[in-house]
Amino acid sequence: MNDHFNVIIVGAGISGISMALELNEKKVDKWIILEKESEMGGTWRDNIYPGSACDVPSILYQLKKAPSTTWSKKYANQNEILSYIKNTAKPIEHNIYFNEAVERLEFNENTNMWSVFTTTKKWSAKYVVVSMSPLSNPHIPNFKGADLFKGNQFHTAQWDKKINLSNQRVAVIGSGASAVQCIESIQPIVKELHLIQRNPSWVMSKNNKEYNKTHSLPNPIAFKYLYLLNYFLHELKVIFFINPILMKLLEFNLKRNIKKIIKNRSLFNKLIPNYPLGCKRIVLSDNYYQAVSQPNVNLYNTEIESISADSLTFSNGSCVEVDTIIYATGFNHSQFIPINIISSGKNNLKNEWEKQRSAYLGMFVNKFPNLFLLVGPNTGLGHQSLLFMIERQTRLLAKLIKMLLNQHVKTVEVKKDIQHNYQQQLNKRSNGTVWQRGCRSWYLDEHGRNVALWPFSSLYYWWITKKYNKNDFEIKY
Questions:
Q1: How far apart (Å, rounded) are the C-alpha atoms in residues 169 and 152?
Q2: CB 215 within 8 A of CB 76
Q3: Handedness of CA 364, 365, 368, 374 (dihedral sign)
Q4: CA–CA dist 392, 399 (Å, integer)
Q5: In the chain, how many H helices and how many E strands?
Q6: Are 373 and 362 within 8 A, CB to CB?
Q7: At what angle do helices 386-406 and 14-25 cross, to 10 degrees?
Q8: Sequence-separated (6 or more) residues with CB below 8 Å from residue 420
Q9: What is the model's pTM?
Q10: How many CB atoms sit inside 10 A of residue 102's CB?
């Protein structure tokens, strides 16, 4: 088998699949995907906990070149999205190599090729597209005595389907999206549900609804209209994120709505965050506040001191007996790509990003030729579907790669000043957003700079990625 390729895509999540479909459409040959697991799907393969679902409407959480009109709900659940990814990938699935975990990438300046080292072998490619989420390594706090616990304990991203929680005393540690979705799903079946949170999340209703079996939009014009309607309704939300005063008004209204559900004043106070709405990820749920109000639920704002064989002990000396511990504690938020080494000559990407996580358009990094990123720094969205950004990136990259191959280009990398000026623009714009007003979140680096989210409208990103500008790059023939 020839292990030298024009393009290697690292990761078979939805962004990697989108990249592959674009290359396929552009008739780029000799490309493959390397996937570390035995199955595609990324986050939707791993997060199978009860209630796992998307917080973006189904019609927006899909590739426009592969639309589906058979979603069962307004907001699709995990298994539907995973099925969608697998069905969408059928035209290119023969190009995916599974169980190939990429450990390091090294650029050879003599051959102008990337060496891709996996756990099994060495591959070689002219261009590498990294499609890996920095939020993929589950974070489990190191509690004293956790190894002594005799019941089941696991992270939501490592859910064991064989475990039956019926009539059990369950502790859920965490208060983010996975915690909220899991809690509202398991609350009706467990004997006792103990919720341990450091800081609550802002939770808003998503007004989810089921579609009937005949729901479909076979007419492409009708489908396009509904897509655009949903897109622009979500696009308007960016106004709140970039204007903290407007977000404060929305926060006031949300508090009023929560108070209508939570009648107990003490419980209400425990559920209201001490940071501005939007500063951290807003969680969507229709039933969370109703679930935590039930008699079998206890909410703790106290830190865990230790874990014993059958109980949790809190810092105030109290304890609670439990049968199962669920860690809904998110992921290690380093914002670094989860590959040990990405090097070009003496330059290591991790070392470069110690100064500031930066990539031009979230895709190109100076000093790293022929390397492209998907969903890189500052391309996440707080108000819109991430798939919009993914499609903008993969379309641009496919056009660029096609041109580079046709013109037999040796190397391409973004100019230093182009990347620097771009990052300065992002930093300046981020300073006025709600994300940098009053809280610490994984959106920010250790210096308090936004390195995760796009601080403009997605329409602006659409405009600047309509076509590539050759003047932005150093191109060697």
A1: 11
A2: no
A3: negative
A4: 11
A5: 13, 21
A6: yes
A7: 40
A8: none
A9: 0.93
A10: 24
* DSSP state for residue 318 in the 8-state scheme: -
- Cα dihedral angle (337, 341, 342, 345), rounded to 10 degrees? 160
Residues 6+ apart with CB under 8 A from 94: none
Residue 22 tokens, joined: 């674009």
Cα(85)–Cα(18) distance, rounded to whole angstroms?
10
Distance from CA of residue 199 to its chain's centroid?
21
What's the pLDDT score for residue 212?
A: 67
52: alpha, beta or left? (left if phi > 0; alpha if psi -120 to 50): beta
Rounded alpha-carbon distances, angstroms, from residue 198 to 171, 278, 301: 14, 17, 6
CA distances from 387 to 23, 36, 42, 57 (A): 17, 22, 14, 11
Residue 95, Cβ density class (10 Å: 0-12 exposed, 13-18 middle, ≥19 buried): middle
CA triplet 20, 21, 24: central angle to 5 degrees?
Answer: 85
pLDDT, tens digit (0-9, with 9 covering 90-100), for 145-191: 999 999 999 999 999 888 899 999 999 999 999 999 999 999 999 99
Six token digits for residue 294: 């039930």
C-beta of residue 378 within 8 angstroms of C-beta of residue 454: yes
Note the pLDDT tens digit of each residue in 369-412: 999 999 999 999 988 999 999 999 999 999 999 999 999 999 99
